Amino acid sequence: MASSPCDGCGCDVRIAGGIANIWTFGGDDADGLTLELTDGSDHLLCYDCIERLPDDPTATDVAALGSDTE
Ligand SMILES: [Zn+2]
């Protein structure tokens, strides 16, 4: 288990540490995941930020997360 700052809001995100855990969505082990965008960049995001992204997010949408806190 590792922890890194969310690229959107900057909060601490616990992520699964090994490949064996990556597809385990049933538990509470991870707070977020790495989202690969259509432009080829990838961003570590918490689930709150992922929910706020549009269906086809871009790096601009990810950057906007940090300045659009509710
Ligand atoms: Zn976040």
Summarize the structure.
With 70 residues, this protein is an alpha+beta fold. It is built from two helices and four strands. Zinc ion is lined by residues 6, 8-9, 11, 45-46, 48-49.
**Average pLDDT taken over every residue:** 80
Give me the side-by-side strand order of the main sheet.
1-2
Count every helix, treating DSSP H or I runs of 4 or more residues as helices.
Answer: 2
The main β sheet shows up as: 2 strands, antiparallel
Distance between the termini: 29 Å
Tally of strands: 4
Explained architecture:
- By secondary structure, the protein is α+β, with helices and mostly antiparallel strands.
- The protein has one domain.
- 19% of the residues lie in helices and 26% in strands.
- The chain is built from 2 helices and 4 strands.
- It has a two-stranded antiparallel sheet. A two-stranded antiparallel ribbon has the order 3-4.
- Strand 1 and strand 2 form a beta hairpin.
- The relative contact order is 0.24.
- Bound molecules: zinc ion (ZN).
- Residues 6, 8-9, 11, 45-46, 48-49 line the site of zinc ion.
What key attributes describe this structure?
alpha+beta; 26% strand; single chain; binds zinc ion; two-stranded antiparallel ribbon; 70 residues; 19% helix; two-stranded antiparallel sheet
What is the fold's blueprint, element by element?
Elements: E1 2-5, E2 12-15, E3 32-36, E4 42-46, H1 47-52, H2 59-65
Antiparallel strand pairs: 1-2, 3-4
The structure holds zinc ion.
